[in-house]
Amino acid sequence: MATVFLSIGSNVGDKLNNVEEAERFLNADEDVQVVQRSEFYLTKPIGGPPQEDYLNGVLKVRTSVLPSQFLEKLKTVEKSMGRVRRERNCPRIIDIDILLFDEIVLKSEKLTIPHPRMHERYFVLKGLAEIAPNITHPIIGKTAIELLSNVGADRCVRPSLRLTS
Prior knowledge:
It is built from four helices and eight strands. The protein is α+β, with helices and mostly antiparallel strands.
């Protein structure tokens, strides 16, 4: 079983329900088990047209499938929830990205692991540092805590949102 860290977010409709529904979809898959989640953070969107703030968090999951197969599972969840891929950085009912997949480094046309911008995003590093503070970026060689200390929280609207469900 591989350990995978995911970034999950929404800025359309009932954001909290959207991220919770995506988590339920993932847990319903026999090849996937969500084992931990971070707090969720409200953040300003990066780029794109004017839009609502995002609710973002990080999930730790276990899976028995390969990265490319896992990516397809994530796309299926997004599609089943009504995500339509249009322009880059547009509003999304759900957005799920693979941050880390064990210690794999992969770059293909469809998938890059680790996520190429994870080390630049406060909300990703904050959530990752919360649930896996000593996880090391396989290319940069720094832990989530170390990477977080180098990124400002300027886009974070509300730095901590504890979910009770």
